[in-house]
């Protein structure tokens, strides 16, 4: 089960490894915390009044297309997008949004979904949300709380029979090592790198880089990932940075998606190349 803040996050984070596991017969579930109602339109080709007026329904339709492309099950947790607060100081979050729901309350919906779907592996964001969007940080908090509570028969007694997932991972999509390797590969092919300025201003955190424990080989599924990204037409510009590096260079330079193993209830020594390392076919029998 992947737990994400908004529709499109399932396609921009871990989509190739998702497609790989689906192709191998794994049942993969995406839990989407919010509907992305307050998200900006990030594709200039979609900046039209009719799109903005119907953004909630359009983003649901985009999610349906991405879900079908990836071959996953997907459920909405039903919370309302917090939006990206802008200003200095930043304004308070809007009343009733996901970022303001008490974690203990919000976790109940995810606990019920975990107990229903019964995943062995759960993935989510790190403590900084991957980037500090309030919904991403809240998604982290809720995911960790639900992972811990789902197997406890004394918690959320109305949310179904207890089920303890065996492993919890954080996504690590943008490490310095990965960005630098892709940058160098572009230069080696006499191509302009989209990461030049970013690397010049990057304050490298070696401790952060060293947190990666698991690299899942999934380069063969980058094409599926790209199609899932394009399904989110309001969020993904086909001429933007997502596609600035040729897929062949991505596949030859960095053919994995990377994760941090945070909790494991099975013997799974790191480094790993599989989110299911250490899990037997029937681990909870």
SS elements, strand count: 7
What is the architecture of the domain at 2-173 and 256-264 at the second tier of CATH? Answer: 3-Layer(aba) Sandwich
CATH topology of the domain at 2-173 and 256-264: Rossmann fold
Averaged pLDDT, please? 95
Considering DSSP H and I runs of 4 or more, what fraction of the residues is helical? 25-40%
What is the end-to-end distance?
Answer: 20 Å
Give helix and strand order, one letter per element, not per position: EHHEHHEHEHEHHHEHHE
Report the principal-axis shape. Answer: globular
Annotation field: number of helices: 11
CATH class of the domain at 2-173 and 256-264: Alpha Beta
Q: What is the CATH superfamily label of the domain at 2-173 and 256-264?
A: LmbE-like
Q: Provide the structure class.
A: alpha/beta
Determine the strand fraction and express it as a percent band: 5-15%
Radius of gyration: 19 Å
Largest sheet: 4 strands, mixed
In which order are the strands of the major sheet placed? 4-5-7-6
Outline the secondary-structure elements.
Blueprint: E1 2-4, H1 9-12, H2 15-23, E2 29-34, H3 49-53, H4 55-70, E3 73-79, H5 103-117, E4 121-124, H6 134-149, E5 167-171, H7 176-188, H8 196-200, H9 206-209, E6 214-217, H10 222-231, H11 247-253, E7 256-264
Parallel strand pairs: 1-2, 2-3, 4-5
Antiparallel strand pairs: 5-7, 6-7
Helix pairs in contact: 4-10, 5-6
Protein model, in words:
This protein is an alpha/beta fold and 285 residues long. The protein has a domain at 2-173 and 256-264: Rossmann fold. Helix content is 36%, strand content 13%. The chain contains eleven helices and seven strands. The protein has helices spanning 9-12, 15-23, 49-53, 55-70, 103-117, 134-149, 176-188, 196-200, 206-209, 222-231, 247-253; strands at 2-4, 29-34, 73-79, 121-124, 167-171, 214-217, 256-264. The strands form two sheets. It has a four-stranded mixed β-sheet with strand order 4-5-7-6, with helices on one face. Strands 1-2-3 form a three-stranded parallel β-sheet, covered by helices on one side. α6 links the parallel β4 (121-124) and β5. α4 runs antiparallel to α10. The chain is globular and about 60 Å long. The two termini are 20 Å apart. The mean pLDDT is 95.
């Amino acid at each position: 089960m992947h737990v994400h803040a908004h529709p499109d996050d399932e396609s921009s984070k871990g989509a190739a490894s998702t497609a790989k596991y689906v192709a191998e017969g794994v049942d993969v579930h995406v839990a989407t915390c919010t509907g992305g109602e307050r998200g900006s339109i990030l594709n200039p080709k979609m900046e039209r009044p009719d799109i903005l007026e119907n953004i909630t329904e359009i983003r649901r339709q985009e999610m349906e297309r991405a879900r079908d492309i990836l071959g996953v099950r997907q459920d909405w947790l039903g919370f309302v997008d917090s939006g990206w607060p802008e200003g200095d100081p930043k304004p308070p979050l809007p009343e009733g949004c996901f970022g303001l729901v008490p974690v203990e309350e919000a976790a109940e919906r995810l606990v019920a979904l975990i107990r229903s779907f019964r995943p062995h592996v759960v993935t989510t964001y790190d403590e900084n949300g991957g980037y500090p969007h309030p919904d991403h940080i809240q998604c982290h908090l809720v995911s960790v709380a639900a992972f811990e509570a789902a197997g406890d028969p004394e918690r959320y007694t109305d949310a179904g029979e207890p089920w303890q997932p065996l492993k919890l991972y954080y996504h690590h999509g943008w490490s310095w090592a990965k960005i630098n390797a892709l940058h160098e590969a572009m230069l080696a092919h006499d191509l302009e790198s989209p990461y030049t300025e970013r690397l010049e201003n990057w304050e490298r955190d070696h401790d952060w880089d060293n947190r990666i424990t698991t690299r899942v080989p999934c380069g063969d599924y980058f094409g599926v990932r790209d199609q899932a990204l394009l399904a989110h037409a309001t969020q993904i510009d086909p001429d933007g940075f997502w596609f600035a590096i040729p897929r062949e260079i991505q596949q030859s330079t960095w053919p994995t998606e990377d994760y941090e193993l945070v909790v494991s209830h099975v013997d799974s020594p790191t480094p790993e190349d599989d989110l299911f390392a250490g899990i037997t076919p029937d681990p909870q029998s």
